[in-house]
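Customer escalation, tier 2.

The customer says the design service returned an amino acid string that "doesn't look like it belongs to this structure." They asked us to rerun it and document both sides in this ticket. The original structure tokens are below, unchanged.
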């Protein structure tokens, strides 16, 4: 984790933290190329030189945003592991879906930022694992799947990818999808959880660690 990001996370009232929060919001709404440092500075109420002093170039701040979102997400993975430990597969599956949905709902910029990072050709000096299948493997291990079995691992990853991107799309595209369903936000979130649990049948993943 970068030093500015560590400082921002330790002091939520600092200028660094306020810039980080504004950057998460704007990068999530407009993407990397659609967001300028002037937009971020204006959102915080500081001048552009102050932003550069605290975070450096736009790419540096964007990398920090990705790391920040990833750090928050890994906390959810840890929570899933604690809640799901020693429970049957169906319960672990439900816990994972519920927890990830709540995270995405509480961090509306997260899905767009994650999707942009995964598919963008923007060159960043980040840990390669941030753009790999590592997060999927971490979820798989937490849920008790045998990720060392290559053939099974591919099937599990494909199924998890289907859920992963469906969830991202449901939350990233809520402003478009929800009016079609004619629902309020809370009912929409419940429907998304139910849909994911119904479509991605846990029976597809019956082979577990022994």
């Amino acid at each position: 984790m970068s030093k500015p990001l560590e400082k921002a996370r330790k002091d939520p009232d600092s200028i660094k933290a306020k810039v980080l929060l504004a950057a998460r919001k704007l990068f999530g709404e407009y993407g990397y190329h659609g967001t300028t440092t002037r937009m971020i500075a204006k959102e915080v109420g500081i001048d552009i030189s102050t932003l550069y002093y605290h975070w450096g170039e736009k790419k540096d701040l964007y990398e920090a945003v990705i790391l920040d979102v990833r750090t928050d997400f890994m906390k959810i993975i840890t929570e899933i592991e604690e809640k799901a430990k020693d429970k049957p597969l169906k319960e672990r599956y439900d816990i994972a879906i519920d927890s990830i949905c709540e995270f995405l709902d509480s961090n509306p910029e997260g899905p767009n930022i994650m999707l942009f990072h995964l598919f963008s050709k923007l060159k960043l000096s980040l840990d390669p694992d941030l753009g790999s299948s590592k997060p999927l493997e971490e979820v798989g291990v937490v849920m008790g799947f045998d990720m060392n079995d290559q053939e099974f691992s591919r099937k599990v990853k494909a199924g998890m990818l289907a859920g992963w991107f469906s969830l991202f799309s449901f939350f990233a595209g809520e402003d478009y999808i929800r009016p079609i369903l004619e629902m309020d936000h809370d009912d929409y979130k419940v429907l998304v959880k139910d849909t994911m649990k119904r479509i991605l049948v846990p029976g597809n993943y019956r082979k577990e660690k022994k």
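Tier 2 assessment: The sequence is consistent with the input. Confidence is low (pLDDT under 50) at residues 206-210. The chain has one domain: 3-205. Sent an explanation to the customer and offered a walkthrough call.
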